[in-house]
Amino acid sequence: xxxxxxxxxxxxxMRLISGLLDKMKIQSKVLATEDLEDIGLGEMMLKVxxxxxxSRDMIMEKIGLLNLLxxxxxxxxxxxxxxxEKAGKSGFFYxxx
Length: 97
Prior knowledge:
By secondary structure, this protein is an all-alpha fold.
């Protein structure tokens, strides 16, 4: 059995085609954008090369770099927050709004 994915221009076009398929007794299902993204991700996962292995050390190194980046971002935020407090501005809310 094969399937077809059709992207509609608008809701009226979707209702028209869905009604036609119902009258022809052809099973159909409307998918959300997230569902289409999941299908695409699944297709990409099937095509990936799984013969290449990654060592535990490399994974831990990448996690360490991400943690370092997060820590650096927090330090920048705290520095900016303290600078606005010293300037007599309204601190946290001034930083974002």
